[in-house]
Amino acid sequence: MVHRLLSASLGLAPAPQMEEAAIQKQAEHCNNRKMASKRVQELSVDLFFAVFVKECGPLESEAMVMGVLSEAFDVLVLRFGVQKRIYCNALPLVGFQFQKVGKKPQLSLVWEPQSAEQDAPRQVISIFTLVDVVLRAENGATKYSAVLKRPGSQE
């Protein structure tokens, strides 16, 4: 439709013999189909990557923090190009605190010590922080999650 209208405006083709409302409706329909097609493609990629994680996982990778929320943060897993959200309540933490330093959101994580003699490791999560994550398959065949590795751990 866009090409037909462009050709008509350049005088290369006759103008479509349609009402303006009909052209608008057809353009909206085409846009909706395009967006639905893109969404299906994204879901298909997610599905196949989840199967890959289930078959080949767990997978370790470096990740970059892309967003910080009050109880979670989003990471881009650099090796695989996928984004996942990591929830603080799913980690073995003693506690965590969200704060804004200037306009920059930040999470301070306090990990459970691995032994009674150790101090609790602390980790600060802010935008563009590099972290190590593990991608693991979940119970469903089509789901996987990202888990933040404890700082300094070799596991």
TrEMBL record:
<dbReference type="GO" id="GO:0010587">
    <property type="term" value="P:miRNA catabolic process"/>
</dbReference>
<dbReference type="GO" id="GO:0000932">
    <property type="term" value="C:P-body"/>
</dbReference>
<dbReference type="GO" id="GO:0000175">
    <property type="term" value="F:3'-5'-RNA exonuclease activity"/>
</dbReference>
<dbReference type="GO" id="GO:0006402">
    <property type="term" value="P:mRNA catabolic process"/>
</dbReference>
<dbReference type="InterPro" id="IPR041093">
    <property type="entry name" value="Dis3l2-like_C"/>
</dbReference>
<dbReference type="InterPro" id="IPR050180">
    <property type="entry name" value="RNR_Ribonuclease"/>
</dbReference>
<protein>
    <submittedName>
        <fullName>DIS3-like exonuclease 2</fullName>
    </submittedName>
</protein>
<dbReference type="InterPro" id="IPR012340">
    <property type="entry name" value="NA-bd_OB-fold"/>
</dbReference>
<feature type="domain" description="DIS3L2 C-terminal">
    <location>
        <begin position="57"/>
        <end position="145"/>
    </location>
</feature>
<dbReference type="Pfam" id="PF17877">
    <property type="entry name" value="Dis3l2_C_term"/>
</dbReference>
